[in-house]
Structures are given as C-alpha cells and as structure tokens.
Design brief:
441 residues; alpha+beta; seven-stranded antiparallel β-sheet; three-stranded antiparallel β-sheet; 14 strands; 13% strand
Length: 441
Amino acid sequence: MYYHKSSVEIFDDISCYQKIRKLGEGGMGEVFLVKHLKNKKLYAMKIFSSQEKAERERKFMEKMVSFDGIAHLVAWGKSKEKVFLIIDYISGISLMDYQRKKRKISGFKILCWSIDLCKILKQFHQNSPSIIYRDLKPQHLILKKNGKLFLIDFGISAWEGEIVKPYGTKGFASPEQFRLRQPAIKAMDIYSFGKVLEFCLEKCSNEKKLKKLAEKCTKKDRKERFGTFEIIEKRLKKMLFYKIYCVVISTVFFLSGIFLWNHMRQPQEIVKKETTNGSEFDFTKNLIRDYKKQLKDVKHVISFSELWKELQKIKKEDKEQGELLEEMTWQSIYALDGKQKEEAVFSFGECYLTKCIKAKESFYGYQRVLLYLESERKNAEAAYEKFIKKFPAYEEIYVDYGIYLCRNKKWKKAKKIYQQGVRHTKMQSNKAKKLKEKLGT
C-alpha cells in the first residue's frame, strides 16, 4: 500500500514512478531519481531494506511538512520486502562539489548561506519536541541555481534528549556524537554548523569575524559554544548589514569621485553658466581646495565642527559640489581606526543635530551616527531619543527607532515608541504601516 501525504492517495504499486538514475546510497538505503509518469515531475525515491529505519525517517519528515529550505516528503509506502519514501528532488549542486569547483568564494556569499542555514536549523530546534539533525555536512547542503540553500537527508535525526548511538561524519560531527549513551542535544548541530562554516572559509580570506564565529561554534566544551541559532543568526545579520552598508558607501564615494573629477575639469565653463562674478568663483574654488586639503589628512583635523561649517559654506555657494564633498567627508571618517573613528563620527554627526534647523537635513547626517552605533553593536537608544527630543514631529525617526528596537527584541519599548510617534506625527508612510503590522498594534 502506498500513501500520498496531501490527498492520502493509495497506490497499488510503484509502477507510476519511472527510475532514471541512481543518486546515491548509504547506511540507510539507496536513493534514485524518479519521474512520475502522470504529472511528469521528478522526485527522489529512497528505498530502505529496514522498515524500522524507514518508519523513523518518515515520522521526522512528517513533522517537517511546514519547514522551509528542506526536501519534503511527498509519498511513502511499503511492499513485502522494502519500504520507500518519495521525496522532493532538489536540483542543484552540493556545497561540497561547489567548493571544489571554485577557486575563491566571496565572504558575502558565505554570509548569505550561513543565514539561510541558521533559519533552516532554527526550525528544527524550535519544533516541539526539538529535532536534532546530527548529520550536517557539505554533502547534505544543496545549492539551487537561484542561490537558495536546501538541506536533505534526515536519516540520523533524533529528538532532543533521546539516547542515540555513536554516529556521525568525522570532521563535521561534534565530539559528543561519538560518546556512548549520549543524549541528542542542540549543541551538536551548532558544532557541525561551525565546521561547515570553516569548510566554506577555506577559499575565502579576510573574513576574521566569520572565522571567530566559527571558532566559538566549534569549542570542545559545549558550554562555550553559542546557545541557539537565533543568537548566531543575529550576529550574522549584523555582519551582513555592515558589509552591505560599506559597499553602498564605497560605491557612492567612487561615483561621487568620478562626477567631481569630471565636474572640476572645466571650471571656467561652469563659471560662465552659473555666475558672472569672477571673484565669487575664486572664493568658492579656494574654499573647495582648502576643504580637500583637510580631507587628505582628516585624522589631524582639529575641529570637526569647524569643518562642518566650511562644508555648509561650500553647499551654499555650490550645492552640487557641496553634496559630493559631504559624501567624501563621511568616507574619509569611515576610513579612520578605532577611537579616532568613533570621535570623528560623533563630532561631525552631532553638528547635523545641533546646527540644522530642518529635521530632514538634520536626519540625513545624524543617521550616520545611528548606523555606526548599530554596526559596532553599541546601544543606539540614547542617540535616537536625543534626535526625538530635538525634532518630535519627524515621523521617520520613530519608524527607524521602532525597527531598531524590534531587531533587538525590545517589543514593549518598540510599541511605546510607535504610539509616541502616532501622537506627534501621522505615521502614514509604508514603513510605518509595516512596523504597525509587525507590532500587532
């Protein structure tokens, strides 16, 4: 008898599935690529000689029916001698084969994979009771053409706390998995996650933060590892956010530099179009020249407040040039190190808050302070509230502050800030509406 999970359809035999080729085999059974003769879809057919092993895997897969990022169970059944499972066929390349073929893998790509994998494994651990995957390795991770990551093969999964036999893939399984009478625990999957991350980083240099994260996951003492995949995912998302932010800023700086170079090549033509006063042009030109000199040696700038004032003079005389120089200034500040960078960000960013009259203009620059605090994993609440105190009727600050609090799981305070925003502003933007939905207010 053969049962289909969605319609409980009963098959008389498996002749409706045509075998195409063998995909692999292991201790649990053989796997074939098959084609359904009626709907023409491709599936993976896993054939077991042991009914006990098949029943166990089937029960786990039925619990995973709502999970994202895995190969789902489609149908199952048994004959006199064998048991089989019909599973979604995930077309793609294993992470193992992908890594072997590529000379180098970007840190950005590894970050995205790691976040996807965290989301998948988080579902296992959040299930009731928790499911421990126990067999995480590059061969079981499939990359589709669209870059999406999928997890396959649940043959040795176990319920949390279940006493399991010593089993696992050396180099990826945790030390606990090879101990006798060891209960299945979440730390096993966290260790294997770190080992998979280390495997990916073999062909990626200059990713120190990712390497440190992998090291913490793979500590021999399980108490020293991360406690949950939620914590790991949060760390990875912050890394990704900072990486994207740096790329955007670098791109803006690069394009700004090109535009500025082209714009300054023929200053006399610009003068003829924009002003008939030669002395006014000379004054602006001298301002720009002096300002650029300071940017070249920004680490020795004595007063960022004075630098900000000079920038406003340039923007008043030539708005386009001023905006380009503004981006160049921030890029120069971001290039500084440690304490010097922090002081420069705050000194220059505070000028927008204290000296700008319009909220929009003020937020444009002050937002860099908020982004810096988040990228450095520092508490930004005081900085948000400082801006609200100066500009209580500016909607965007309430929305951004609410989103920041949600990211940090401070739901009560996020609701309070949203309600404060409603009292002072309309809160009608799309971002505000999405925040409202997220908070359920």
